[in-house]
Design a protein that fits this description.
With about 240 residues, the protein is an alpha/beta fold. It has two domains: about 120 residues, Rossmann fold (3-Layer(aba) Sandwich), CATH 3.40.50.2300; about 70 residues, Winged helix-like DNA-binding domain superfamily/Winged helix DNA-binding domain (Arc Repressor Mutant, subunit A). Helix content is about 40%, strand content about 25%. The chain is built from eight helices and 15 strands. It has a five-stranded parallel beta sheet, with helices on both faces. The chain has a five-stranded antiparallel beta sheet with strand order 8-9-10-11-12. A hairpin with a 2-residue loop joins strand 9 and strand 10. The chain is elongated, with a radius of gyration of 20 Å. The two termini are about 25 Å apart.
Length: about 240
């Protein structure tokens, strides 16, 4: 059986120390880093390589990383792009996001925040929506119109209520979902009925998905709620 390759992340940063810190964060989230130190070499690597995420500094030798975004897209890259820059004012972030960045992180930053943002981008990259019908998280496939769920080739039999629950989880993948959110959005209850209806349904759905996938899909955020994360390793 072929071992899946880790996702690749391109780092375009001219400061070698900062670039290595970013590379370590990339390795920490289970991805493989490539580093370029100039605007032009970054553009070339982005066009030639298959990257899940690209991290662009702004003040690079040869150009501004924000201006590279349109060129990367035009070259056909489907990578998600995060700008990491010392230009951290609100207007700088707005400019970056309006020019197509998927995220913008100001320097100096906390290493754990960078890791968290990388994980979020990798989750987004793992989720593919086709014709507003099929949502795919790795080997987990949710068909919205047919209201069916598959893990690999295995069909997972779930009830209509469980499908509604799964759909809400999928639309909030990676985020903590509270019991109250589930009551409001899945059961249309705007008060807590003081029953374990949420826990029972989540537990049942959780077991079905885990049995099919061989790993946890829905995780408990203690004291907060649940996190739907099909690509997260068991803790």
């Amino acid at each position: 059986m072929t071992t899946p390759q880790p996702p690749r992340i391109l780092i375009v940063e001219d400061d070698a120390v900062i670039a290595e810190g970013m590379a370590q964060a990339v390795r920490d989230v289970g991805a493989a880093p490539d580093i370029c130190g100039t605007y032009d070499t970054g553009l070339q690597a982005a066009a030639e390589g298959e990257y899940a995420v690209i991290l662009f500094d702004r003040m690079l030798p040869g150009g501004d990383g924000v201006d590279a975004i349109a060129k990367v897209r035009a070259a056909g890259s489907t990578a998600l792009i995060m700008v990491i820059s010392a230009l951290g004012r609100a207007q700088n972030k707005i400019e970056g996001l309006e020019k197509g960045a998927d995220d913008y992180l100001a320097k100096p930053y906390d290493a754990e925040e960078l890791r968290a943002r990388l994980r979020a981008l990798l989750r987004r990259q793992n989720m593919v929506a086709l014709d507003n019908d099929v949502i795919v998280f790795g080997d987990l496939e949710i068909r919205m119109k047919a209201r069916t769920v598959h893990v690999g080739r295995a069909h997972v039999a779930i009830s209509p209520k469980e499908f509604k629950l799964l759909s809400f989880f999928a639309s909030n993948a990676g985020d903590v979902v509270t019991r109250m959110q589930l009551l409001e959005n899945v059961w249309n209850l705007h008060f807590d009925p003081q029953t374990n209806v949420v826990d029972v349904h989540v537990g049942r759905l959780r077991r079905k998905l885990e049995n099919a996938a061989g790993r946890p899909i829905i995780h408990t955020a203690r004291g907060e709620g649940y996190v739907f994360d099909p690509v997260k390793a068991a803790e």
